[in-house]
Amino acid sequence: MSLSVPLVFGALGGVIGERAGVVNVAIEGQLLLGAFSAALLSSITGNPFVGLFGAMVGGVLVASVLAAFAIKYLVEQVIVGVVLNVLVTGLTGFLYGALLAPNEATLNTPVRFPRVEIPVLSDIPIIGPVLFNQTFIGYLMFITVAVVAWGLYRTRWGLRLRAVGEHPQAADTVGIKVNPTRFWNVLLAGAIAGMGGAYFTLVSVPQFGKDMTAGLGFIALAAVIFGRWDPIRATLAALLFGFATNLQNLLSILKTPIPGEFMLMLPYVVTLLAVAGFAGQIKAPAADGKPYIKS
């Protein structure tokens, strides 16, 4: 469960962005800048909630660049996403070396969220310690999954979101402003992915490190596809990939004869097999990745 938290947030951000018609390849960059911003602000203020807010801002910054180039300037969305990932990797790496590493005691010692045990519920066998002994971000993940799943299919916001991603021309004819709707929802997706980045530095590791997301943004994107662009299914896919990561750690501890390099490959192999196995059987939203030009 813990290993899946950033994947779930990233997958939810991917679902919202692609349901709106914008391919969000920049999830990796949103997670990484979110982790950096969370570590920096939490270290300066001594408050993990400020760090979490900073992570959301970091995710929104990456998403705003993606939205501007993809929606306004009609640049190929996949290319923009890849370039943003490289840009954020380089930027955070430079800032880490120039700013955080020399001032580690003051700028890279974030205050982390403590675990909060819910009385009675945490005593339930098996599921109690898993679900009801989490940090604030863990509980926030449960709430976010429920809200996004409910909102996507039960609210006017969700109807408009799905409309601009499936048939923007029809949405435009009934008065929905397609490009502004896409823009604001891509920003929302960035904020949610940024919260996943906060998990790395406010829960998992007590400081920011270069490239600490280790490609999990791409696994989150695979969870979106494997989950058929549905928030609940994408969450379950993220849990599967989290399980594969934990299995790799467990097999390493048990000192199995499998070489360590192959063990490190396990989560990515599971991701590849899952996505390749469903290739051709699932369809993205009809207008996903297609810019809308009002005629």
Write up what this structure looks like.
Helices cover 70% and strands 1% of the residues. With 295 residues, the protein is mainly alpha-helical. The chain has a single domain, classed as ABC transporter involved in vitamin B12 uptake, BtuC. Strands 1-2 form a two-stranded antiparallel ribbon.
State the gist of this model.
By secondary structure, the chain is mainly α. The chain has a two-stranded antiparallel ribbon with strand order 1-2. The chain has helices at residues 5-19, 27-45, 48-72, 77-100, 104-107, 127-131, 136-154, 156-166, 168-173, 178-204, 216-226, 231-253, 260-277, and strands at residues 116-117, 133-134.
CATH architecture: Orthogonal Bundle
CATH top level is Mainly Alpha
Q: What's the CATH topology name? A: ABC transporter involved in vitamin B12 uptake, BtuC
The largest sheet has its strands arranged as 1-2
Based on helices, strands and strand pairing, what is the structural class? mainly alpha
| Helical percentage | over 70%
Keywords:
single chain, ABC transporter involved in vitamin B12 uptake, BtuC, 295 residues, 13 helices, globular, mainly alpha, two-stranded antiparallel ribbon
Write the SSE topology.
Blueprint: H1 5-19, H2 27-45, H3 48-72, H4 77-100, H5 104-107, E1 116-117, H6 127-131, E2 133-134, H7 136-154, H8 156-166, H9 168-173, H10 178-204, H11 216-226, H12 231-253, H13 260-277
Antiparallel strand pairs: 1-2
